[in-house]
Amino acid sequence: SIMPATLSAISNSAKSGVLFKGGVHVENLSHIKAIAFDKTGTLTNGTPEVTDTYVHTDWEKEKVFAIAGAIEKESIHPLAKAIYAFSTDYTNVHDLNIHHVTTVSGHGVSAYVNDETWEIGKAGFVGEKDAFNFHGGVAKQLAEQGKTIVFVKANDEIVALYALKDTIRNNTKQAIETLKKHGVHTIMLTGDNETTAKAIAAEAGIDHYIAECLPDEKVNHVKQLRTDYENVAMVGDGINDAPALASANLGIAMGKGTDVALETADVVLMKNDLSKITNAINLSGRMNRIVK
Ligand code: ADP
Ligand code: MG
């Protein structure tokens, strides 16, 4: 049966916006030694915006933006939404026969435009060597500013690059700092490239980061963290995060996250506020002292 102190911790947490799905999770939170965070939508707001674009001089800018926008319209990825929104200024381009749009999770999206093959996505998806050399290697310096880089390839040639910036949530830095003071290790998991990941981790004050992390690799990284740190929580918001949430000692979902993440998690942060985790840790610690 559930102890009165546990019940009171659950109800006090709920009032502050942290929903525990059972008493055992309160106990587990007090033992957590490391927390892994998904980047997009968890540490950041998850609404990236296009900040810079570069189009190959042989190509008509309007046409490239219109095509990329039309292709990304078919994808629900936050980057795709931003690239589509950016393209709505270029609606004077017609007669595009775009077909066979295929999204490749963790990589990008491909399609046919008339009989040309187009690919939009990360460097590894369009070919790293050409991607990093595009426009005098501009990708590197944009990534150093914490921007995500998306390349556009048409028939084996890089024709454009988008840089997108997603802002860190208001309470992220404070939350990470407080966790570190409590002796909790913080790790960021992201599908983004090494350079961007490093810049965002520094901005957020995160101890470690794992970049180029494919959606189905998150589970293995969480398992590895469990051997390194014993008791590990995972915080995420996306459909792709659900398996990782389930494989952590404690799965924590952002309240505005996808249904699957909310369902899989043991704890839900109602207001998307990471700083509530530290409040809950304090409460769980107090509760355990009372129970024992
Ligand atoms: P994260 O979950 O860290 O935001 P993903 O694993 O979804 O990243 O994607 C990794 C990388 O693949 C992105 O940073 C981007 O470069 C590329 N990518 C994925 N999906 C798309 C898309 N629909 N359009 C353009 N690029 C994409
Ligand atoms: Mg996410």
TrEMBL record:
Domain of life: Bacteria
Signal peptide, first to last residue: none
Record's subcellular location: Cell membrane
Family statement: Belongs to the cation transport ATPase (P-type) (TC 3.A.3) family. Type IB subfamily.
Protein name stated in the entry: Cd2+/Zn2+-exporting ATPase
Species for this entry: Virgibacillus salinus
